Structure formats: structure tokens, C-alpha cells
Input
Amino acid sequence: MSSRPTKRQEQVLDYVRRHRTQHGLAPTVREIQKHFGFASPNAAASHLRALQRKKLLYRHPGTARALRVTGDDRKEVAAIPIYGDIPAGFADTREQRPDGCVYADLDSLDIRRTARTFAVRVRGDSMTGAHILDGDLVVLELREPNHGNIVAALIDGETTLKRYLVKNRRPFLRAEHPGYPDLIPARELVIQGVMIALFRKPKDAGRPIEP
Output
């Protein structure tokens, strides 16, 4: 088999390269299909497999949108889904819904590629002592918390963002603002995610702030 790509394969390779430049991540098979007007995703996948066999394209294992052009050393950007907002104030009972995504370089945030992550927007002022402000975007990981972690939690059926503490083997939640009381679960305390990074709200936009 020739190691030289066909004309169409060169076009697909160029599209993958341009998509990563413009969006920070590789296109999906269906996006490639749509861009070139292929009759089915299989046609796009066939070109990708051929480019991989010719070692012009490779996949980063365990990563979504993992296509990378050989020789392209730019860091991979991952799409982290945003699930609405969460109160940093008194707990709330509103249902959370997916609301777009935020793109982040996992390496710069020291996030494992296998980590299950999501993001929520902050509402309220109860975490200002931890420099978490109304409108900020908090990135969380689905894992067990440690004493002192900032968490998104479901406490007695209501959601909130607070610091997770344990005293006498009993967990509870604490605000980072003197105007809010500790939250002690009467029935249940379910940790929905542990904070691993924070993006400042747009008017103070800058680089991500790690907890």
C-alpha cells in the first residue's frame, strides 16, 4: 500500500488540521461526513482509517474527539459540559439542565483525561471567601470528596455549592461567608462533584484559577 494519501485523504487531513486550529479539538466522524457530503459516516470513517494506516493521523487513546495529525504537538482541548447554574447561597430545588460546554486544556488544569468532569455557573455570594464569585464557572469532577474540598452537593433534596467538612465522622457543608449557616443533613448528603478548577466570569476573564 502506498504511504502517500489520495487527493480526498489530503482534503480530510487538512480539514482535521483546520478544525483543531479553529475550535481547539478534532471534528467528529459525522462532522467530517457533513463537511464533505459523504453519503454515510462509514465513508468518512474509511478515510480516517486509511490515514491512520499511513501514519498521517492517529487517535489519542481514552479521549473524545481524539484525532490528531501526526507531527501536530499542540495540546488537546476538551469540551466540558455545562449543566446550568448552582446556588452559592441558600440551597435550591431547581432542576439543572445541560447548557452548552466550556473548552479547556486538561494538561494545564492537571485534569486526568479519564476524569468525568462537568461545569456549573455560580449564583450567589456564599463562597466569596474562597474567591468564588457570582457568575463564575466551576469545573467539577465526579469522585469522592476529601475533608476541605469545595463540592456541588445534594443535601436533603436541594443542590448547593459549599465546602465539604467532616466532624466526629459526620459530614456537613460550610459556606465561605459569615452570613450563611452550616448545612447539616437531616436525611441525606450526596456529593455531585468536587471542584477542580474555576473560570472567572467574563468581565474579569483571564486564565483558569485552580482551587
Q: What stands out?
A: The two ends are 51 Å apart (CA to CA). Residues 7-23 form the longest helix (17 residues). The chain has two domains: 7-69, 77-204.
